[in-house]
Amino acid sequence: QVQLVESGGGLVQPGGSLRLSCAASGSTFNDNTMGWYRQAPGRQRELVARITNTGTTNYVDSVKGRFTISRDKAKNTVYLQMNNLKPEDTAVYYCNRFYGPISWGQGTQVTVSS
Questions:
Q1: Which long-range contacts link 8-11 to residues 24+ away (Cβ below 8 Å)?
Q2: Residue 32 has what pLDDT?
Q3: I want to staple 52 with a disulfide (CB 3.0 to 4.6 A). Which of 56, 59, 77, 102 is the partner?
Q4: What residues have CB less than 8 Å from 101, skipping those under 6 apart?
């Protein structure tokens, strides 16, 4: 069964950092464009960043310069390094295949609060 498992979330103060991980099992996603998404309470899920199979990255304007998406093909894992976190970054973060998403995982909660 193909599965994506997100981890690395937590409670952090404004200005802090977190590194999220997305591990794939049951299949390799190394040839796919992968994305990190987030959903805040009462809001629709939004794309935060994506990375192609060749390493090209794109970011939503609100996280440019603060977030970095990367991938380790040997580990079949995608990462999201989040720096200078703001309260508005609070959300559940998910990863998925950008083209033809599969079933969504549980996500990982990120809470930015003092």
A1: 8/108, 9/92, 9/93, 9/108, 9/109, 9/110, 9/111, 10/109, 10/110, 10/111, 11/111, 11/113
A2: 93
A3: 56
A4: none
pLDDT value of position 39: 98
Indicate whether 1 pLDDT > 80.
Answer: no
Q: Which two tokens stand for residue 107?
A: 């996500």
Place of tokens 């989040």: 82
Longest dimension (CA), the chain: 40
Containing 70, the helix (H) or strand (E) segment is strand 67-72
65's torsion region: left (phi>0), alpha (psi -120 to 50) or beta?
left
- Other beta carbons within 10 angstroms of residue 18's beta carbon come to 20
* Tokens found for residue 61: 């304007």
